[in-house]
Amino acid sequence: MSSLHEALLAAHLKNDREALVRLYERAADTSDDKDAKGFYLTHAYIFALEAGLPIADELRTRLVHMGREVD
């Protein structure tokens, strides 16, 4: 099991939304698969919205550029 995967599991167990945003964004940034990248960024975006984090706007912009969100 990768350390990123383990960190995601731990963050979910703690319900640490800020960590989940960072970790899902890192997963997206390191993925070579377009669908996986969209999946991870969507999760990062949702957790950022739930936590009221300002990075949500940046994540949404990235999703729009990927065609995963409508502007």
Strand content: under 5%
What oligomeric arrangement do these chains adopt?
single chain
Distance between the termini: 37 Å
How helix-rich are the residues, as a percent range? Answer: over 70%
Outline: flat
Strand-and-helix sequence, N→C? Answer: HHHH
What's the Cα radius of gyration? Answer: 12 Å
Low-pLDDT regions: none
Give the total of domains: 1
Strand segment count? 0
How is the biggest beta sheet arranged? Answer: none
Provide the residue-averaged pLDDT.
96
Instruction: Return the structural class.
Output: mainly alpha
| Separate helix tally | 4
Topology:
Blueprint (H helix, E strand, L loop, with lengths): L2 H12 L2 H14 L3 H18 L3 H11 L6
Helix pairs in contact: 1-2, 2-3, 3-4
Structure in a nutshell:
The chain is mostly helical and 71 residues long. The chain has four helices and no strands.
